[in-house]
Write a structure and sequence with these properties.
This protein is of the alpha/beta class and about 500 residues long. The protein contains 17 helices and 22 strands. Helix 2 runs parallel beside helix 9. The longest helix has 25 residues. The structure holds nicotinamide-adenine-dinucleotide (NAD).
Length: about 500
């Protein structure tokens, strides 16, 4: 064994991964049914550990605990004290970044150089919402002459059900937990079944800061059982969901009887449009990073590339070089740029899309997976050429390191192509013509669009998608609209006219 392999083996030993329990009412407990399920390592497909398999009984227990905490200590706590807890959670995450990032990579196959940045973002989510709630969660006052003053306040809603995916688990969980708790709700988190390790770590960290019991709960388990029970529980007043579009629609149907509010952050098939006057090298960097980072398992990935015909050949040639040189490897290796996909089922889905692309007449150009890595769920970085926007691989979300490359001639034509898709999450436009940049950006139907930029996040902006990519916005103060109730208080300042129904006339 080389020294590098020995170091990585030591890193895994140091992670000291044990079997995982649920976190309910401030205690780590087995599932009521005592059932467990296996968690796999995407790099080897060996079993990492056993996870307690929560179902309706556990969800109901967690929701009862969360409801009690909401009506009790958490609901009665002063905001400043509550926000101290939120800042403490940020501190303990920061203190454990070196431990959480490898755990995330080990569990998901995401390269460690990338999980380190995601984990740092997780702590920022808490700090940001502590700050936002203290400075920006303000009401409005509406003066009506000298007769009335009407004012609004924000009130937390109650038990928030948070359902999260496996593609950036720790960061996405905190993206929801931070505003939910900071605004005064209590939480039941149902993390994705393929990535439970860092959700458990988060439960340990949050437990260590001493929140009142029941404020934060984690119930591991499958979507169809644990997830569905959370959606069906009448005491859960809101569901924030991130995941596939078809799951989002299933959740909306299943929750209809208990009338809740939903935030839906769903799938994407985002276009990147490169005009002939674009900064070629920067567009190439951004396009390559935007599809192959996070193993291509990224909701905002630029999975459809539209190149102006005059730069098509050169851009494709240069992309081929990049694809050939991308370092595919062990997610725990700092040099790795693309790691294995999360799970054999997902690996088979992505491979199936490549087969369909071939059957539909496209050409496939793939990079390399080292021969020694064949035991993991590796898909080489891939470009699909000779394809049109109506083909399956250009229309459906592949969610892997697969870029569909197409050509255009006119601005109008590329706008129509960019919009000819079910999704509308993100988009990217590259041009030095400032007028065209804005014009095209505004014409693309997407929740978010970057001009001459890779996907750089600004926590203050509204995050979310249009069309089948989502409903509602989280992020910045927009999260207050979802996680709080706006209550209006009407106050009469003097005696005003009140109709006197039923009063006898003198
Ligand atoms: P998924 O929909 O399969 O699962 C997401 C979560 O939903 C998991 O926790 C799962 O257990 C749960 N779930 C499944 N069925 C359920 C049901 N019937 N009731 C309640 N819960 C249920 O998604 P995934 O495969 O984990 O994640 C990948 C998807 O997430 C992609 O489509 C990606 O684009 C999307 N995503 C979107 C964003 C965004 O912000 N728009 C961000 C990240 C990922």
């Amino acid at each position: 064994m080389t020294q590098k392999q020995l170091d990585k083996q030591q890193m895994v030993t140091d992670l000291d991964v044990k079997d995982i329990q649920l976190y309910v009412n401030g205690k780590f407990v087995d599932a009521e049914s005592s059932k467990t399920f296996e968690n796999l390592n995407p790099f080897t497909n060996e079993v990492i550990n056993q996870i307690a398999e929560g179902d309706q009984a556990d969800i109901d227990k967690a929701v009862t605990a969360a409801d009690k905490a909401f009506k009790g200590p958490w609901g009665k706590m002063k905001v400043s004290e509550r926000l101290e807890f939120i800042n403490k959670i940020a501190d303990v995450i920061d203190e454990h970044v070196e431990e959480i990032a490898p755990l995330e990579s080990y569990d998901t196959g995401l390269p460690i150089s990338q999980t380190k940045k995601m984990v740092a973002r997780a702590a920022k989510n808490f700090r940001f919402y502590a700050e936002m709630v203290s400075s920006r969660m303000v009401g409005e006052a509406y003066q009506v002459d000298d007769e009335f003053i009407n004012y609004t306040i924000h009130k937390p809603i109650g038990v928030a059900g948070l359902i999260t995916p496996w593609n950036a688990p720790f960061m996405l969980e905190t993206w929801k937990i931070a505003p939910a708790l900071a605004t005064g709700n209590t939480v039941v988190l149902k993390p994705a079944e393929w990535s439970p390790l860092t959700a458990n770590k988060l439960a340990e960290l949050i437990d260590s800061v001493g929140l009142p019991e029941g404020v934060f709960n984690v119930v591991h388990g499958f979507g169809e059982t644990a997830g569905a029970s959370l959606v069906a529980n009448p005491d859960v007043k809101l569901i924030s969901f991130t995941g596939e579009t078809k799951t989002g629609s299933e959740i909306t149907k299943n929750g209809a009887d208990t009338l809740k509010r939903y935030s839906m952050e769903l799938g994407g098939k985002s276009p990147i449009i490169v005009f002939d006057d674009a900064d070629f090298e920067r567009a190439l960097d951004a396009c390559t990073w935007g599809i192959f980072s996070f193993n291509g398992e990224r909701c905002t990935a630029n999975s459809r590339l539209f190149l102006h015909e005059s730069i098509y050949d050169e851009f494709v040639e240069r992309l081929k070089e990049r694809v050939d040189n991308i370092v595919v490897g062990d997610p725990l290796d700092e040099e790795t740029q693309v790691g294995p996909l999360i799970h054999p089922t997902h690996f088979n889905n992505v491979k199936r899309y490549l087969e369909i692309a071939k059957e539909e007449g496209a050409d496939i150009v793939s990079g390399n997976v080292p021969a020694s890595m064949k035991q993991g769920n590796f898909v080489a970085p891939t470009m699909i050429l000779n394809v049109t926007n109506d083909k399956t691989v250009a229309q459906e979300e592949v969610f892997g390191p697969v870029l569909t490359v197409m050509k255009f001639k006119e601005e109008e034509e590329v706008i129509a192509l960019a919009n000819d898709v079910e999704y509308g999450l993100a988009g990217y436009v590259w041009t030095k013509d400032i007028q065209r940049g804005h014009r095209v950006a505004q014409a693309v139907d997407s929740g978010m669009l970057w001009i001459n930029s890779q996907n750089v996040r600004d926590l203050r902006i509204p995050f979310g998608g249009s069309k089948s990519s989502g409903i509602g916005r989280e992020g910045g103060h927009y999260a207050f609209d979802f996680y709080t109730e706006h209550q209006v208080i009407h106050v009469a300042l003097k005696d005003h006219h009140i109709p006197q129904f039923g009063k006898k006339k003198n």
